Every structure is written in structure tokens, then in C-alpha cells.
User: Which sequence fits this backbone?
């Protein structure tokens, strides 16, 4: 599961990049799931229809086949379906657990794009069903406190790694105690400025 404390930190971008890297570069079988049922986005990224998706599958009384979209031979997309203002019962259902269990049998990687942890309860519900969490942090914007709260609410032991997003060269240089000039050119000319 790809998670973050707040909106627009880069969850959808990170889950897409992760899915493309694992499916294209590593040739693994990947299922990318849009589990942000209130504000679906992955169908826009891949320019595919979002008429039906995970949300519909969870809401329907009868179990139908989920509308999977084959993006490439190794990448399959499960869109969210039309926005659902109240997806919590679906996300906590036995059906959701079965969807994830079946998916993990059929794919090497199942990647879930999710809503912000600090704003909605949805992601916390999903967090309990996944193996590991990748936490995206928008550097320079998200406060340390917000990140800490997100870590506590999903569970520190479930976080496999953190993606520090939107890092500027300038910030890195400052962190390592170089001026941006010496950071960029010092090595090349063999001396610092
Ligand atoms: N490192 C980045 N560089 C450039 N654009 C970015 C970067 N990270 C995110 N974005 C853009 O910012 C917007 C919000 O990112 P998104 O992945 O949709 O966030 P979230 O899913 O966490 O709400 C999108 O338009 C995305 O393409
Ligand atoms: Mg998103």
C-alpha cells in the first residue's frame, strides 16, 4: 500500500511509478489498484474509463468479476469506479479481503493507491489488510508532526520504506553542509568553493 499523511503528497504518482518499474523493468506481474474510492485518479493517469471498478465490486450484492484493465502484458489496473462518498463498509468487507487474497495469488505484486491517512479513516482500514506500507512524504510541506501521526496510525512496524518526494537539490546541499555551488561543481573540479 502506498500511503501518505496528506493529499497531493505524491501517492498516485509513486504507486504508478512503482507499478511501471516492477512490471516493465523487472517484468513482474503487477496489479495496480485504485483504492482511493472517494477521489479516484489512476484511470486519469492511464487514460482509461472508470465506469466500473473496485468500489462497484465491493458494493454489489452479487459477486461479479472485477473490471480489470490490461495496461501491458505485465501490468493490470483495477480502477476505483465512480466516486463513492462512503466507501468504509466496502473497504472493511470480507469481499475486500477476498479480492486482496485472490490478487496476491495471481500477481507478483499488488500495489494499492490510497487516500490520505490523516484526513480519512479509509487508509487505516486498508493498512490492516496489506503486507507492507510505502509512506510518501512531501518534503518541505508536510510537517514532522503530521508524518509522525501517520506513522502511528498505520503502525510503524508495517512501513517498509519512505519516499521523500519533491526534494530540491538545494535542500540536499544545505543538509550535507555544502553550498549548492560546491555541491554541484566541487567534485568535478576536485576542490570546494
Ligand atoms: N516529484 C514530483 N514532481 C513533479 N510533480 C509531482 C511530483 N510528485 C507529485 N507530483 C504531481 O503533483 C500532483 C499530486 O500528486 P499525486 O500523486 O496525485 O498526489 P496524491 O495521490 O498523494 O494526492 C500530481 O499532479 C502529480 O503528478
Ligand atoms: Mg492520489
Assistant:
Amino acid at each position: 500500500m502506498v500511503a501518505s499523511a496528506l493529499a497531493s503528497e505524491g501517492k498516485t504518482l509513486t504507486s504508478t511509478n512503482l507499478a511501471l518499474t516492477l512490471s516493465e523493468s523487472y517484468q513482474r506481474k503487477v496489479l495496480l489498484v485504485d483504492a482511493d474510492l472517494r477521489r479516484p485518479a489512476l484511470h486519469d493517469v492511464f487514460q482509461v474509463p472508470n465506469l466500473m471498478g473496485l468500489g462497484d465490486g465491493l458494493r454489489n450484492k452479487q459477486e461479479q468479476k472485477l473490471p480489470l484493465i490490461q495496461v501491458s502484458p505485465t501490468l493490470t489496473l483495477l480502477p476505483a469506479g465512480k466516486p463513492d462518498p462512503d466507501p468504509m463498509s466496502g473497504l472493511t468487507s470480507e469481499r475486500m479481503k477476498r479480492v486482496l487474497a485472490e490478487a496476491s495469488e495471481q500477481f507478483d505484486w499488488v500495489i494499492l493507491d490510497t487516500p490520505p491517512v490523516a484526513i480519512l479513516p479509509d487508509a487505516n482500514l486498508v493498512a490492516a489488510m496489506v503486507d507492507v506500507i510505502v509512506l510518501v512524504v512531501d518534503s518541505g510541506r508536510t510537517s514532522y508532526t503530521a508524518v509522525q501521526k501517520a506513522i502511528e496510525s498505520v503502525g510503524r512496524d508495517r512501513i517498509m520504506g519512505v519516499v521523500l518526494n519533491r526534494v530540491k537539490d538545494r535542500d540536499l546541499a544545505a543538509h550535507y553542509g555544502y553550498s549548492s555551488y560546491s555541491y554541484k561543481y566541487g567534485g568535478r573540479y576536485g576542490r570546494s568553493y
The two ends are 44 Å apart (CA to CA). Residues 2-176 form a domain with the Rossmann fold fold (CATH 3.40.50.300). Residues 17 and 126 are 21 Å apart (CA to CA). The chain has one domain: 2-176.
